[in-house]
Predict the 3D structure of the following.
Amino acid sequence: MLKDRFGRNLNYLRLSLTDNCNLRCTYCMPHNPHFLPTDNLMAPEEINRLVLLLARLGVKKVRLTGGEPLIRKDFRRIWDLLSRTNLQLNLTTNGVFLRRYLPILSGRLHYLNVSLDSLNPGRYALISRSTPKTFNEVFGAIEEALSYDFSAVKINVVVIRGFNEDEIPEFVRLTEDWPVAVRFIEFMPFNGNGWSADRVVPVSEMMAMVTREFPLLPVSGLSNVSEDYRVPGFRGVVGFIGSMTRPFCDTCNRLRITADGHLKPCLFSPYEVDLLGPMRRGATDNELTDIIVRTVMEKPKGHPGVAELSRTAHENRRMSAIGG
Ligand code: SAM
Ligand code: SF4
């Protein structure tokens, strides 16, 4: 088992397949970002080797993310390799290319998370720097995904004051007929993402907005980071993720690997250690295991408060370059 200095059992890997994306969400990346050269991205076999090593060390769940994981031309090969493991496989996607992959994900994917920050096509286009047509594609893909056998389909909504907090009730209403988990996420500061404290809508405020219109009953077991509820009689679930105002560092079981093969024990810390370089220079499994175990010991107890985080955000990679 991979345990850190504070006794946390690190059994959940968030694996970035690329830092590139077919959208440019304003809260996530700049208009013209620099991306990693393709040669620096882990190849499918390299990804598989690291995942198998981590599985031997006790990792049980993997989430494929990015950037946008479904823009990898070799996504099928990666999926095929990881599908042969006995790990729980999950995916976070913006949904633009989702429809074409639903059949191959079916039968193996556990949780499917799709990001959708507005139910208004024009607004969606603004925040993602895309078009209303893209909204229709993503919304259609989510609806189609509901007919598949995934353990849950979740919609991730980053709530930004002055942009979309007025849509919270409408998102809740979506759970009346759709068996979907809508999760409202507090806006987090990353390098150059336009974050300011006054644009964060705290979970307490989001919940107050919801309970003015809907009664909420607690639901357990869907996630260890979101506080989940159900409106009586509704088919879906509503969750709140308070990374800023209700941090869950004490129970954090996450490790991250960036698309260029760097192990990051904490989303908010710039600390990371290269695994791909040593792997390409011929490191043995034992040598890589040593690096992993030493890196895990550097996982901080928690992240600093929001003021400090926003001051130091430039030292860390962008969210899309870490693997959100
Ligand atoms: N491209 C995929 C997607 O959008 O779902 C996966 C990568 S994206 C970086 C993963 C998640 O991080 C998305 O749900 C996105 O909304 C969220 N995210 C990105 N920047 C964020 C920020 N500044 N604060 C909170 N969540 C953020
Ligand atoms: Fe791309 Fe996801 Fe970031 Fe949006 S949130 S720019 S879809 S990586």
